[in-house]
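Subgroup meeting minutes
Present: P.N., E.W., G.H.
Scribe: E.W.

1. P.N. recapped why we're keeping a running log of single-chain structure predictions: easier to compare across weeks, and new members can see raw inputs and outputs side by side.
2. G.H. added today's entry (128 aa).
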Amino acid sequence: MKDFKTIFFFLRLPIAISLFGHGLVRLPKLEIFSNWMVTSMEKSAIPSFMIVPFSYILPIVELLIGLALLIGFQTKYTIYSGLVLMSLLILGSTSIENWSAIEAQLLHSVYLGGLFWFYEKYKPVSNH
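Output recorded in log:
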């Protein structure tokens, strides 16, 4: 596929902006976001000593995965990281029965899976 780089950039763009934006808007209000997450997870079986650090790390990870997808850095591993992140978010959402959040997380997962499929099927073969 001769326009792979251009096509793949535009396929990455929506999910990259979504993840980057999630992290970007949460970073300036990190403590507020963390408090919200801890409060929303009160009924979860996941202990708060695990939720608190995760709530501070999550926006940074979202921002970094979004940025890496945007610039095309280590694409395969970035997609894997995004899928692991979505799996962790789905676990948290199921633990509090937040089914509507799971829909968005599954949509992100399917998009990342499709992106991975496209990458593997059409990436240019290296001459080395």
